[in-house]
């Protein structure tokens, strides 16, 4: 009989079974192979009082219930063997910064019944239950195998040189693509168990920029701004004064937008401020020197603005008048020039000289002689040309 049965009957002996036969009140707790003497001497003798010896019908209801409970516990203990167990010493959810190394812990404990070949598998669980998980690295038959794409497997390995002595997973430099749910599965027939670890890869905040939105004039509102262009949300902003005590209570700080609003700026607000932006994996800060400038004279500003506007209007009117005057002047000059040309007398003809008249006459005379073809006369009379004071010599 197994040790589980022995412990059961020890429990029965202390809680249910009576110490002598007289307390049995005549109930029979034995079978033929158990002598009456043994039962009378020690009714809970495990040598005699075995499983088949008990007759539940001869017990009271309360005693029967207690015996049934004990027998059920014995049955479970006798038939359930300690199975394979995979555990992790670290948290189930790990948050790490991009670029950092990480170890995903996985440890197994096997039973004596697990005599099969050791098989270790690390895989990334698919968020879609209809798709298969992506195996990344495994150990079987005493050899290590890598799976998946090269980008995901870069820097991924078992923490131990011999995975059978250390099945934890190591990632040398995290990237955003490494984020996911990892499963460590250990098989050693007939035992098998697995453990899941969620890995969250976050980007650290970049160095923020600090500036004053608006102005730094005394009596005016001043808005101190802080913003980081990179970093995994949520990003939290926090302003503090590097000197002069804490931030005044009248200043309103927004940890989400990174704004520090001072509704009424004064000299007491003037100092160096520091803004820190942070998330779960890192933090950065920037500094800003807030000054208190005297506000300009409003009356002078208004007067200067009005005078400037009037001067601008006057200059604009002068320019328009000059353009109109120029156009009219050009048109007047053009009309005056046309009038002068219409009133001017025609130029006098120059008197014809005697020589030119004579040459013309000679020319005409020769032409006429050629056309008439008369023989020249032997008696030629020349008349003397008369001079006229207005027209010259007659032709």
Would you give an account of this structure?
The chain folds into three domains: 77 residues; 118 residues, Sandwich (Immunoglobulin-like), CATH 2.60.40.10; 82 residues, Immunoglobulins (Immunoglobulin-like, Sandwich). It contains six helices and 20 strands. The strands form six sheets. Strands 2-11-10-5-6-7 form a six-stranded mixed β-sheet, with no helix packed on it. Strands 12-13-16-15 form a four-stranded antiparallel β-sheet, with no helix packed on it. Strands 3-9-8 form a three-stranded antiparallel β-sheet, with no helix packed on it. A hairpin with an 8-residue loop joins β5 and β6. α1 packs antiparallel against α3. It is elongated, with a radius of gyration of 61 Å. The N terminus is likely disordered. One of its GO terms (cellular component) is basolateral plasma membrane.
Features of the shown structure:
Immunoglobulin-like; 395 residues; 3 domains; 6 helices; 6-stranded mixed sheet; disordered N terminus; 4-stranded antiparallel sheet; 27% strand; alpha+beta
Report the sheet-strand fraction: 25-35%
Shape verdict: elongated
> Assembly state here?
single chain
CATH architecture of the largest domain: Sandwich
CATH superfamily of the largest domain: Immunoglobulins
- Give Rg in angstroms: 61 Å
Adjacency order of strands in the biggest sheet: 2-11-10-5-6-7
Organism: Cyprinus carpio carpio
Main location: membrane
Domain Ig-like: 61-198, 205-291
Membrane topology: Single-pass type I membrane protein
